[in-house]
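RETRY 2/3 - previous attempt timed out on the joint model. Re-submitting the same 370-residue input unchanged.
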Amino acid sequence: MANIEEYIPIVGQPIIDDLKLLAEKLRGKVVQHINSTAVGGGVAEILSRMVPLLRELEVNTGWDVIKGGEQFFEVTKKFHNALHGKPEKITQCDFDIFMETSRENIETLDIYGDIVFVHDPQPIALVKKKAGNKWIWRCHIDVSNPN
Amino acid sequence: MPELIKAMEPFRFYTRLHLSELTGLRASNLSQLLSVLKQVQGACIYHHTHRFLQQHQYLSPEPPNDFAYWVSKVLGEDELGERLASIDTIQFSTVRSLRDKIIATIDNYLKNNMSAKLKFAGEGEEFHFIKSVSFVLPTNYIAYDLREFVDIVKNITIDSIYFHIFESRLRLEKKTNDFSNWIETSIGDKKLSDKISKLDPYTHTLEDLRKTIIKIVEQKLRD
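RETRY 2/3 succeeded.
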């Protein structure tokens, strides 16, 4: 995988310098990314490249993945489709499945970031662990025409 | 070749990043638009009259502000849209005076076109007011003379050029752009300073603006 210096011929030295300036502002802070898959899907593709680049910029960055079974991901797929505009029937049973797995993740997943990025809807219930730190929901879905 | 003049004060380049923040304020018709325009922060006026400059990198778009676009395309008030689009932003040295002009333009139009008040945007087509939050950072690029200055301008990010040309002049109310100010006060070249300050940056893309500034300064260095 390309390191950050290899991007210089493409974007120019000043862009990389700007990134270094921004990274300096995050010294002493821990940034934690949370999503639902380690491989496969756009978010994993982004994080697998972005996290090493952030570390190269000396931003203390972690990446954690929630756990979930087949049923959980079937429900979150419905959420995803509905947010994207597709008609979906979401039942109480679906919510129960979602909350049951979310509760397990809330109990087991360690939140250590000063800044926590939660990617997409699957890990969204983790916000119940929000304390004094900053939380950002990074939505990768086009929600301009939700159902 | 004449010896290069060393600047009395070096020029430090800054860079600027921004965040667009929804205010929750919206308008469905011209009366509401006018009412909200009078009370929103200057950061909203700035956002809706300047965001296109950083978004459109290949064309100078028309109309150049969101108010003109919405009034024409959503409300169908083409005449007012044209009047708003023709507001010459470079003529205003503060966001406050630019806001006053936009308000007066809509106000005057409504006085003569009462029926325009009856037009409403369809659901989902309301005008949503967004404000621009800026983050300005000093870079490590510093110029001590015009040669160093132009070499840096060739490579600096367009965010930096944007900050020194647009944001600094209008939002920080410096009256002129930072480049002209430095060339006049630290290099002592009023003629060159005026050449850059007389550019209408709103009619250029940022890369075009960069090329134009380089050309002007290099011409000076050759003379």
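The radius of gyration of chain B is 20 Å. Closing ticket.
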